[in-house]
Amino acid sequence: MNWEPWTGCYPASDGCTYCYFYGLYAKRYGQNTIQKTDKFDWPVRTNKKGEYNIKGDKILATCFATDFFLPEADEWRIEAWQMIKKRPDIDFLILTKRIDRFLVSLPNDWGNGYNNVNIGCTVENQKLADSRLPLFLSYPIKRRFVACSPLLESIDLSPYLSGIDHVTVSGESGREARECDYDWVLPIREQCIAADVTFWFKSTGSLFKKDGILQKVNPFQQVNLAKELDISILDGKKLF
Ligand code: SF4
């Protein structure tokens, strides 16, 4: 289930170039407006009986079609944090390409982090891993995950995996997608095994190379194909 309290975004790094929503060839590129959505208060909205519309014990992917840490959302985020705090029975998954804005975006009572917040830091290549992950690890966060999404080259995450709960890998989707080589994916899996971190190969992306053979993968098959390869290691832990 997703919660998109605001909409609109613009590129922040290498993985954004062909963003499905706002990238170079997306319909909304350069013409999207960053604004609140009509679902802004969704986690705390109630029905006539006064019960929450969203029942508890859920995972809510938050701002997966924008970025929670956009500077344009600074004012709205104050209220978003209050809603997140009000729903300790929901796990909020916040994935960002703007982890450098984390500290300036926190509520006053954040302390060592809210228990129900998972922060995900995206790293698409080694340069971004080396710049973002040391910052990410230095911040007060209770639960951290890394998303290599889209994976654009081989990455060595091993210096950074202590303190990370989970790693997700996906290839890039879309007509302009860059290739994702299975030979980049497998070493990340090995790094996760060595560090005892759960690993999820979520999607092959549109252009997938395996055993040196490049294939175009239909959008509806990308998740299935990654699943069929059966290399994810989730150990029965909650998938996020
Ligand atoms: S941060 Fe995410 S939503 Fe924003 S442009 Fe980049 S990929 Fe798209």
What does this entry show, briefly?
The chain has helices at residues 74-86, 126-138, 182-195, 222-228, and strands at residues 2-3, 6-7, 35-36, 58-62, 90-96, 117-122, 143-148, 166-170, 180-181, 198-203, 207-210, 213-216. The chain is of the alpha/beta class and 240 residues long.
List the main descriptive attributes of the protein structure presented here:
globular, seven-stranded parallel β-sheet, 240 residues, binds iron/sulfur cluster, 4 helices, alpha/beta
- Biggest beta-sheet profile: 7 strands, parallel
What is the succession of H and E elements? Answer: EEEEHEEHEEEHEEEH
Oligomer: single chain
Bound molecules: iron/sulfur cluster
Rounded to the nearest angstrom, the distance between the terminal CA atoms is 11 Å
| Basic shape | globular
Counting DSSP H or I runs of 4 or more residues, the number of helices is: 4
Number of structural units classed as domains: 1
% residues in beta strands: 15-25%
DSSP, total strands: 12
Q: Topology, please?
A:
Elements: E1 2-3, E2 6-7, E3 35-36, E4 58-62, H1 74-86, E5 90-96, E6 117-122, H2 126-138, E7 143-148, E8 166-170, E9 180-181, H3 182-195, E10 198-203, E11 207-210, E12 213-216, H4 222-228
Parallel strand pairs: 1-4, 4-5, 5-6, 6-7, 7-8, 8-10, 9-11
Antiparallel strand pairs: 2-3, 11-12
Bound molecules: iron/sulfur cluster (SF4).
Iron/sulfur cluster (SF4) binds at residues 9-12, 15-16, 19, 21-22, 66-67, 97.
